[in-house]
Design brief:
four-stranded parallel beta sheet; Thermophilic metalloprotease-like; two-stranded antiparallel sheet; single chain
């Protein structure tokens, strides 16, 4: 696969070089991946090129396994718009237990997020707010465990 290249002011910039360096910093400085580490990367679909580099760097540093969790904005919009009303204020306990199991099994977390802007209708915004609050409350055990620093973690928000 050819690297993404674009021109700015007559200068050709190779984006894959930046991704490689950025991945190197996240893996070596942010999380300090060492031999035998278990890594979980939470990411959106638009971050796949960076995730490929992160995975490569993690395995080069000796990671035992890298687990990937794709969180696609369009799929989330579909959930907001089409989820049955009955389920708006419920979040599956299996999802909470899965996340807690990752943490208790020693996985180091890397989360890459970017804000998603859309022209949602007012009722969609209200539904999204309910879903977000419900998930946040359900995931409290995971958040509490994570804040107790049992595992290494790195979170990057792009703005």
């Amino acid at each position: 696969m050819a690297p993404f290249v674009y021109k700015k002011g007559g200068l050709t910039i190779n984006n894959s070089m930046y991704l490689t360096h950025y991945a190197n910093v996240i893996v070596n400085v942010g999380v300090s991946v060492e031999k035998g580490d278990l890594i979980k990367i939470n990411f959106s679909s638009e971050h796949l090129p960076l995730v490929r580099e992160l995975t490569k760097e993690a395995y080069k540093n000796g990671a035992h396994y890298v687990s990937l969790d794709l969180q696609d904005p369009e799929i989330e919009r579909n959930r907001v718009n089409y989820l049955a009303e009955d389920f708006l204020d419920e979040f599956p306990n299996t999802e909470v237990q899965n996340q807690l199991n990752y943490a208790k099994s020693g996985y180091s977390m890397i989360t890459i997020k970017a804000p998603t802007f859309s022209n949602q209708r007012d009722e969609s915004i209200e539904r999204a707010s309910i879903l977000t609050k419900t998930k946040s409350m359900a995931m409290r055990p995971c958040q509490t465990y994570g804040m107790e620093n049992h595992n290494k973690w790195y979170r990057k928000k792009f703005s």
